[in-house]
Each structure stands twice: as C-alpha cells, then as structure tokens.
Queue: 2 jobs
Job 1
Amino acid sequence: MRLIFVNRLLFIILLLQIKILSQNYFVEQLEVADSLFKSQNYFDAITEYKRLLFFDSSNQFRFYSNYQIGLCYKNGAKYSDAIRYFVLAEINSTNNEELFESKIQQARTNILRRTTTRAEKILSEMENDKRFDQHKTEIKYWRGWSFIFSDKWEDAHQIFSEISETNLAQICLNTHDKLYSVDFAKYSSMIVPGLGQFYTGEYLSGLLSLAWNVFSGYLTINAFNQERILDGVITANLLWFRFYRGNFQNAEKFAEEKNIRITNEALFYLQNEFNGIKP
Amino acid sequence: MLRFFLTILFCVTAVAQNNPLKSDENRKLFADYLYCQQDYLRAAEEYESLSKSRLSDTILYKIGKSYSIIGNTDKALNYFSSIQSNSLLLKNAILEEARIFYLTEDSYSLNKIVNDVDTSSTELKKILIAFYLKTDLLDKANNYLFLFNDDDIIRLKRLYERRKNPAYKSETVAGILSAIIPGSGKIYTEKYGDGITAFILTGIFSYLAYDNFKHSHQFRAYLFSGLAAGYYLGNIYGSVASAQIFNAKVDFNFLNDLSEFLSSKNYFINEIDFCK
C-alpha cells in the first residue's frame, strides 16, 4: 500500500518535472533572445525568437516573439519585414494593450518607411476604435510625426499644439515658416522672368534669366517689326520660349531644392537633438 | 517500479541541464523550417552548427544552396565541393558549382569542371557554351555546338548566330551620313524622330542664315549661322554616339536573352524541392 503511494507520488513529481522543465526551456530561450536584443545583436536575436516561435506549441510566447522580431527588423531598418511581424503580433495579441502596441508600431514603422498614407490610415482606424480611447493623445502624437514625414509641417504644428507638445509644435512652425512657396516661385517667374529665382535667393540665376528673356524677346519683336515673320516665329519658338520655359521651371526647381534642404535640416535636428520619443 | 521512476526522474533532471531546443535533432528541424521560409542565412548557420556526424550530403547541399542564393559564393563552393562522390546530389552540386563559375566568369574553374570532373555531362557543356557566348569566345563555343543535338542546343545555336553576326551599326557610316544629309545618320541608327527633327532644324537655320545675309541683317544672320553650325556639328556627333548606343543595346539585348534562356532552364539543374 505504502509502495503504491510512493510510486504515484513519484509519477506525479515526474509529470510536473517534465511540464515545468519544458516551460523553463522556453523561458530560458526567451531570456537568451532578450539578452541578444538588449545587446543590439538583432540578427541573432531574431534567430532565437524565431526558434522560440517554432518550438512553442502552446503559443504562449507568440505575441511577444513576433513583436520583438518586429522591433529587431525595425532597428535594423528592414521596415517591410518589421511591419510583417507587427501584423503577426497584432493577430496573436491577447488583450487591448498588446493590440494597441502592435498597431502603433505598425504606424510608427510606416512613418519611418515614408509610407505615411498607410500610417495615417492605421492611426485613423485606431482613433475611431473605442478600445483605444485612453490612448487618444498618443495616437495624435504619432499622427503629428506622420505629418512631419509627409512634409505637412503646418498640420504637424496644429496637432502637436492640440496635445501640448510645445517643443515639437514650435519646431514644426519654424520649419513651416522657413519653407518657400513653390507655386509663388513658379508663377512669379512667369510674370517677371527671374523673379522666382530672386525670391529663392538665387540672384545671379535670376539676373541671367531676365537677361536672356529680354534679349530673345527683343530679337523676336525686332524681327516682326522688320516684317521678317519667319525669323520672328523661329526666334520666338526656338529661343524666347525656350528661355521663358526654362526660367519658370528653374525657379520651381530652386524652391523645391531649398525646401528639401530646409526639411532635411529639421529632420536632422529631430533625429539628433530632439530628446522625446521618435518613430 | 520505484527504481524505474527514480531512473526516469534522474534522466529528466540530467537532460534539463542542456537546452533541448538546441539539440542536434531540434536544430535540424528548425533549420529545415528556416530553409523552407527562405531565411537562407539563418538556415545555413543552423545547419552549420550541427555536429559533424549529422552533416549528411543533403544538409551540405542545402547549406551550399543557401549560401549560393544569398550570394556568398566562396562558402557555397566550399560546401558543394564537400559532397561525396557516391552521393545522388553530386550531379546537382557540380551543376551548382558550374552556375557559380558562369556567373562569376571564372573561366579556368568552369573549364576544369567540364573537362576534368564530369566529362560526360551534356548540361555542363551547355553551360560552358553559354559562357563562351557570354564572353564572346565564339571559336571555343563552336567546338562544342556540334557535339550533340537537342532543343537547348538549337536555342544556343541561334544565340551563337546572333553573337557571330550582330546587327551593329557603323559609327563611321552614321557620322558620314549626317555630314552629307543632316539627320540621316540618326535615321540610319533607327532614331527616326531625332533624324527628321535635326534635318528640319538645320535646314531652317541654314535658310534663315542665308536669307539674312542676303538682306544684310548681319546680327541675325550670324546668330542663325551659329545655330545652324551648332545643330549640324552636334548632329554629326550625336549620330556617332547614337550608333555606339545602338551597338551597346544590341550587346545588352543579346546578354539579356542569353541570361533569360539560362534562367528559364534553371542553368540545366534539375531542382530538388526539399519543402514538400
């Protein structure tokens, strides 16, 4: 009787041992993967998280592993892979917090990938989802960043002002104020050749544009005045219009190039000097 | 019974000292999964970490294939060459090596593999012919083209003919034609729009220059003369450049078609599906 009891007890201990050990292996595996992640060894971290996913038949670590793999890919600038794993994390989320984290990471990675339309769509879905009501401010924060990456600095300023992110709002406002109007540069050069170049600070180019247009215009008018119609038509088409068209295209290009430089400076500042949370 | 349970308990506890997820058996399972997921670098590294006794020819081949796909050709060659001579995968491994030599343009190694390692393989000879066509060694290609006959050889013969008699345009002829009739050099190089435009513009500017000189409008006469001369000389230069571009395009299209043919034939390798 006593022997049977001892046998049963040992059998139960054995089963528990097997169960606990298998759990321990997964926890141990997770710790290995996490330590690799912390030491920024993302390639090996992904391997270990994938190993955990492959052997974890209980699906206990499914959300966490997919989420961490997503973060590894994101940190390694492999944004498309990162989004794929954040979507898998979303599918395997077990509560609203996990769901929120995986979705917001999708939006943040889309911002970094410059697929801001997709990011804004995800953020809009989240904003309309009642489960995320307590995260409205955070959603707006990332929408602001999405506006920054899609060059909508004024919209970004407005949204950051709404959620009292004064520092970011000020940076966006300053950048917006520095930007040149591409349309103004183009159309002003159509009215007065060279004016758009002057507006963007390219004075020499503006003067040259004005001179070429005046010169070729003079030749054209002069030819018509002397009743040399073919000379006039050819000069107008092949000289004057060529310089006229080049003039306003040039003004437009200058404004676009200057705007790219201004936005790059702002993004460089945000990347290196800004201390808040970034995508 | 008591002894039995105690033994099992001891074994389970002893096994627990090593992580079974990284046992050879599980590593292989995981590597197979990664290979089928096309995560080739990780798959290769997992296979490589197996103990030596586990490295079967299939695994060596899969490691070589993984490295070949991700472009690490040195490691791929290393693994393909380590496959044993009695293995069923040997033929595929040799062809994989030949593919790498073809792509890296290693003429010496490709010749060696065809003439020393497997002299009876028609697939290897086809890769060698393709290599000679790619590197424009037509006499050498010709030596192999008539050794045997099948659909692939017919295709390769057609490509040989294209390589031997390319539809090049002469740069000199293009330049001379444009010097005689502005734009005709461009038309010769099949740039019809450019040719007609150049002809009309040079003609108009020349006429305007002549007419302005005739009527003593000196400034406009010199202006149009300058423009006419610019268009005329520019067109001669442009026609020569156009012939060069045309010839480069002929070569590019040939190499593209050759590459497409080899890709469609998978370099004559009978691919094994390990993920069924």
Job 2
Amino acid sequence: MYSKQSKGDDLTNILQVTRLCKTYGMGDAAVQALRNVSFSMRKGEFAAIVGASGSGKSTLLHCIGGLDRPTSGEILLNGKDVLSMSDQQRTIFRRRHIGFVFQSFQLIPELTVEQNIVFPLLLDYRRPEQRDVEEMLDILGLSHRRNHLPGQLSGGQQQRTAIGRALITKPALILADEPTGNLDSASSRDVMELLHAASRQYSQTILMITHNTGLTACADRVLQVSDGVLNDLGGTQDETLS
Amino acid sequence: MKHFLELIPLSAKAHRRQHRMTLFCIALAVFLVTSIFSMADMELRSQKIKALQDYGNWHIMLKHIDEESAGRIALRPDVAASSWYNVLNYRLNDAYAVNGHRAVVCGIEEGFLSDIMQIALAEGSFPAEEGQAILTQNAKDSLGVALGDTVALHTPSGAVCNLTISGFGADTILSAKTDAVCILLPTDAFRTLYSAAAQNELSDSDLVYYVQFKEQVNIPACIRELKEQYGLADDDIAQNAALLGVMGFGRDSYMLGLYGAAAILFVFVLTAGVLMIASSINSSIAQRTAFFGMLRCIGADRRQTMRFVRLEALFWCRIAIPAGALAGVIFTWFLCAVLRLLSGKYFADLPLFGISTVGIAMGILVGLLTVMIAAQAPAKKAASVPPLTAVSGNAYTPVPVRHAANTSRIKIPAALGLHHAVQNRKNLILMAGSFAVSIVLFLGFSPLVNFMNCAVTPLQPYAPDVSILSADNTCMVPFAYKDRLHSLEGVKSVYGRKFAYDISAQVYPAQISSVRSSTPGSASSGDSYQKNIMLLSYDAIQFNWVDEHRWASDQRALEQVAKDVQEGFVLAAYSPTSSVGAGDRIETALGDLTVCGMLNRCPYNSDPNTAVLVCSEALFTELTGAEDYTILDIKLRADVPKETIDAIRAMTVDGLSFSDSRPGNQEVKGAYYAFAVFIYGFLAVIALIAACNIVNSISLSAASRTTQYGAMRAVGMSTAQMTQMIAAEAGAYALSGIIAGCLIGLPLHALLWRLLIAPRWQLPWQLPLSAIAAITAVVLLSCAAAVHGPAKRLKARSIVDALSCE
C-alpha cells in the first residue's frame, strides 16, 4: 500500500499555516488561545507540538483539522484553503485528506477492528480493497483481532486500530492528539513506532501533540506553544526540552 | 451556602440546558393530566347544561301529593324552588285548538318558567289577571296575534275559553316540531279547565310537583326522607336522571362509564408520565455520573445522594408544574372555544375561559406523584455510583457492545443507527415499550369513537330543517310544491317521499323464488309467508345519499332501483325483526316486487311485523297512481330569511301541516359535538403523549451519544449521514413500538369493543384500520420531527465541543 520513500524526496509544503488567531469569549472575558501562529510542514515530516496545559496546542490541532474555526488566519492543506470551504466540503475533505488519532481512541464501539479501520472509506461509500485492509491489519499487528470489538481490546490495540483508521485513506496529514496519553509505556512505544514508521517509511506527514517530552525524540521538528504563541524549536528534540 | 442541598439551584442554573428536557417532561405530564381532568370537568359542565336545557333545573318530580304536602315541601330549608306543573293534550290526541291550530295547554306557576325551566319570556309578562295566558313564540306567526290580543281556546267538550295574551315564551321542541300552539296558564286557571276535562276522563293529563334542591344537598338522602315523611311510593317520585347523573348522584350508566373511562385513562397517563419522566431523569443522572462520583468521593453517603436527586427533581417541579398546569388550562380554553364555535347556541352557557379547579389540582398532584415515583430509580442509581468514578474520570460508560453492526449489506449510517437501537435489548424494550404505551392508549380508547357514533347519533344527512307533511299520512303534498319551495330564498334542497302503508303481501324468499322462477308453480304457498309492507319512494337526492354513504348492500341493486320505472325493483330496509332479504319476490295487490338489495340505514321505523321497501318515485306512481308526496323535507341555509319560513308555513293548508326540526337538530348537533370534542380531545392528548415521548426519547438517546457522534464527525461523517443514522435508530424504535403497541392494543381494542359496543348494538369487532393508520402516522411524523431536532443541535455544536462532552 505504502511505497517506501526516503526523507526529503519531496520538499513541497503539505501544510501551510499563516497568522492563525483564535479568541474565545468577548470583551473582558476574551481569551486569546492562538496568536498569529504561522508554520509549515513538508511531506513526510513528523512534527511534535509541546506546551503546558491550556497553552493552545489542542486548539491549534483542531483548527488545522477543520474541527474548530479560527478567528483569523489561513490554513492551506495540499494547496487547498481549508477555511474557505463549506461545512459539507470541509467534512468530505477531512474524510479524505486528514487522519485523526485521539488520546481516548474514539473508536466506534459497535464496529469490529476491521470495520473501524475502513470506517472513513465506508463513509465515502467506497468499497475497501481487501488487499489494502489485510496489509494494514498486518502492519498494525491486529490480523488476529480483526473481528474483535473495541471493548474486547487493550488500550494499545485500540490506539493501533485508531491509527489504522487514520492511515487507511492515505491522508495528506495525520493529526495525533496525545496518542499515548491513555497508554502504558509498552503500548506507547508500540504506537510511537507505528507513527514513526508511517512517517519514515511511507512519507506520511504527522503532527502530534504530546506532553511526554521523551516522545519528541522520534519527531523531526518540535514546535512549542506557549500562551497561544508558537515557537519552532527546530530539529530533533534536544536537551533543552528534556 | 449553608447546606449541601443548596447546591441544587446552583447546579440547576449551571446545567440549565441539560435539564430542559426533564423540565419539559414534567410539564408535559402535568399538562396532560390537567387537560384530561379539565376536559372531563368541561364535559360534565356541558352535560349539565344539556340536562338543564333538555329537562329543566329540577331534581325530583312528585306525583299524587296534595296541596298541603306540596306547601310543606316548598318550605323545607333544602328546597331551592318548586312548582306545580300540569299538562293537557301533550300527545295532541284531543281536540284542543286555538283559531284552528292544535293546542297543548299547560298549567304552571311563575317560578316554573324562571326557576325550574329557566326560560325567560321573549315578550310580555306572566299572567297577572284572570283570563290571561302566555303563548309560545310560534303562535305569533301561525295565528298572527300580538300581546293583548284575545284568542279562543276550544276544548274537546265544546267549551270555548277566551284568553288574553300576556306574554310570549320561547318555542319548545314539541311546539316547533308539531307546529302546535302551547298555552301556558296560571295553575288556578288551568285547574278550572282541568276539572272540566277530567270529567271526560282524559288520561293524558297529570298533576305533578317539581322540586329543585339547593346546592350541596345530599339529594338521595332527601328523597329517602320525603318518601318516608309523605308515604310516597317509588313510582310517585321521578328523578331527573340526566341532571343527577352529572351531579354525581345518579346511577346513569353513561356517566358511570365516563368516570370509569377517566379512571382508566388516568392510570395509563400516570404510567406514561412516570415512564417519560423516569427516562428523562435517568438520562440526566447517567450524564452526570462523574458528578455523583465526586459527591461520593468528597464524603456524601448514599442517603444524601438519593436525597439530592429527589430534591433536585422536586426543584424542577417548581417551574414545570405551574407551566404544565397553565398549558392545560389554555388547552381546555381552546377546546371550549371549539365547542362554542361548533354550536354556539347550544354551548352558550359553557364558560370560554373556564377554570377547572379539579383539573388543576389533579395536574399538580399527579405532577408531584409522578416525579417522586420517577425519581426513585435514578436516585438509587446515582447513590450506587462508586466514588472511584470521579477519580477515574470515566464519566459515561456506554452499555458494553456484544455484537458488531452489520455493515456488509446496509450502508454505514443506517447500519450504525439500527445497531444503536437494537444493541441493548433492555433499552430497546424500554423504548419500544414507551412508544407502545401510547399506541395501546390510542387503540384502547379508539372504541369510544365507535361508541359515540352508535350512542350519540350525529345529525344524519337526511335530517330536514323544516317539513311539509300530510296530516293523515296520505300522498297529498302537491308535487308542484317541490319547485315552488326550491325557488324560495335560503332553501338549500327539497326532497320528498311518498308512502303507502299496510300493504298486504306474500313474500317468496330468495331460494324459493329462484325455484319458482325456473319452474313456475312448483313452490307451495307454505314456503312463502304473509307480511305487511310499507312502500316508500326516494327521489334522486335521497338515492345519492344512499350511494354516498354506502348504505346499500349492493351498488348495482341501488342503480337498478333508482332507475326502475315498471320492473318492480325495490330495496328492503334492514331490520333485525324482518326476514325479507335480497332476491325475495313479493306479491302485492299493487303488483309484484323484487328485492334487489338491502338498505342498511333507513330513517323510517315501522312496527316489527312490517317490512319497509324503498322504490323510485316513478315506480311508486306506476304502482299506486299517486303523484303527490306524503312529506316534503326542506334543508335551509343558515341565513334563511324569516319570510321564507312564513311562506313555507303559508303553504300548509288543507290537511297539510308544518314541522320545524331546527331546535331538535340543534340539540342533536350539540350533544354530538360535546361528545366528539371530548373523545377526539382525549385521542389528541394521547397522540400528543406519543409524539412528545418519541421526540424526547430520541433526543435523549442522541444526547447520550454526543461524544461518539463528535468522533464520527471528526473522522468524516457528514451531517446528512449523521441524520440518516439517527433516523435509522428512530425508525427501529418506531417499528418495534408500533408492532408491540398493536400486539397489545388490538386485543384491548377488541375487549373494549366487546364490553362497550357488541352487547348493545350487536356490531362485530372490526380491525381498527383508521386508528392504526392515525397513530402510525403520528409515530412516524413524530420520529421525523424527533430526528430533525438532535441532528440540528449536533450540527450546530462544534466537533471539539462534542468530543469533550464527557
């Protein structure tokens, strides 16, 4: 399904965020969650966002994913202006071009592992290619659990299923919000390896929020959000963050 | 904050939106009960008005008592009013006449008109001098007299009594229907006339004493006392059963049935209310598990938690109960307005803005009762939340899923929706059960519509407003009158019938007549039988009604009879006592007749030994030679001018008489509307329960899955797909509810049919297709509305907000 690419083969910007602002409330009660945030990501890049609680990390991720509307600014994903789309267009765009991985997995409890993985394709009324599904299950190490319901899985297996769901449409961007937040260390390692593999081997662009500074070691870039202001800390996580 | 329970109003303020649905449910339950009891109260009031109008404001009527006893009764402290009442020639069999018009003579006291019959004089006053009398209003037109004129009353004995008119009273149904003049004389004057009449042994006269008791008096006890005191037999005391019935003293089966129906409905509504409120409070508790875990965590014990939930429910009552009661009162006003709009004259005394204390009191009582019952289970549920829940942050744990949704055959939104509905059997049973309760209620009470149609006959299409009829029932109303009447202003339609009575006939039943026709002379006369027949003709208008209302057993037979000129084709009116049926051949002196079909509704009664046959006008003339009518019925427009009535009346000369059915029709209409508004009001309220319950249930179900829907939207589910998913879930509940409701409701319908209708009218039970269709439509429309609300709310809610809804 995914062909191996070496990092840096394609230097085009997949994501371009320009002067993004988000303000909650009005007047005296107004809170500026994001202040003129600008950055870009190239294809295959794996970036981590760090920051204290309430700093604006999740708001940034939600705005990029089209789950929330910023007050101002511009978001270009694959050259498309996400914010100028209608609600319906944005939904379909999200379904086809953005993959989400949530801290609390957010799997559909009534669907099996396999059904959960192909869920975005089913929403698009597309018939999943069985070969692709088999390959995905194999990559995720869930072939033997394909017919299990989320309630019958461990946290790590549930998060791997969620990653499978995010990858199945071959999206331009994967947004992961604390993907290891609810997992033990072994499962966290598994999940990070999967994300890392997706980024390295399949040139998947990934933007991940984490509280765990240890996990930023896998990332190509680290972005820090503090009081709504984004600072690009540059290359792979260094000692300053540890 | 001095007490932990003071948290309740603060929490209510913070979760205003979340609690809105529970408030609505409580208000709805109160509204329903207030409406039902207020409607029952209004029905009783309208029945009382009807009873007062029909029979007068008296409670008992005493016979065979002397003047002295009557005087003593009048002085009793529990008696509000009393009056002697005497009547001569009530059945118009005797030759009492005023200026050639038949007359009924009544002897009354002044209080009889004002207190007992509550009739105000249209003109003039009660006779103050000897030789004065009051006449009914119709006398003014038929006799052409005015106040102060003198009329001569001729009695059967040949005596003539000159009376001066002191006033005009309202027409009675009798005077309007028969066009007879009613003369009201003071008791003393009447008695002079009566003693003269008594010598001629008039059996149609009587002396009775009407008694009206004061309010709040125990009437049955008073009756027992009077019987003992004056040695009265049961036959000597007649009771105004209709009035005593609505006052709760009677044993009138209709009123007892009404109370019984209200009691059953009350239990059903209470059940529906408890189910509805319990499900709402349950959902509210389920969504706040973490909050109750926190309460337990910081030291609240189980009892305190239960107290918190119960008091919280009562706190909601503070707003919901007055709102529900107010809505119930407004709804009742609306129904009263409908009644007055339908029959303003009949319901003139029904208060437009009447307040039913009983209705409001019951609404409040039931509101509190349902909330207390409904809060029990959720309170226990909240108390059983482990304190660990608050620490783990696992706020809302959905029911564990056992089977995966089937996505291979059904599209994903529908598959998920169906799975949401059926995955939890207990929830499905509860949801389908709550839908089914409303359907069972609707089906259970729909036999009352049939009961109404049987018991309270609506005004039939053939009911005329006025008629010209032959006084001796012969065909003597000129045929030419039909056109003349048509040309009068305000006349809507004119239709006539010709009658031939007591025709001796030999009936050959169908199987014999067929043998007979194939082999003439083979049937013996012993196989046939003798029967008297009454032949009457219908004109085109009447045949059209038969056709429109499907009163004929066979459409072809109807066409044959309507067009027949000389073949002898007739329709036989169905009667349980007549064996004449379709295919029978009837030999009469007028000619041979063939019964082509049956007529299942015919307004003309005959004695049980007489068969009623209907033929065309042409055939009637062919058989009897009679061109003219026995009766010409006239339907009038509402704005008919008085001149038209005068002109019609003027046509009734030489053995013809005039009959005005309008007052009687008004009464029939009024009675029907009162019952219809009550029954359909009930059914509408039940349908409303169904609709609100469905909307509420679907909304709560959708609200409980907000986070899941948020996740689905985050990974690309569109609003339309989300709507399809909720619609599939609602559809599954509706379908299972309809099936369960019909499975329970239909046997209940059949049972009530057997109890209410079958014994009295011998009608076989029929599948209530229209009721099923109506409630199914209500359920499906409510489902559509139920889906729209949550879908709209979820769409308006941001995905981020939905995801963090826990």
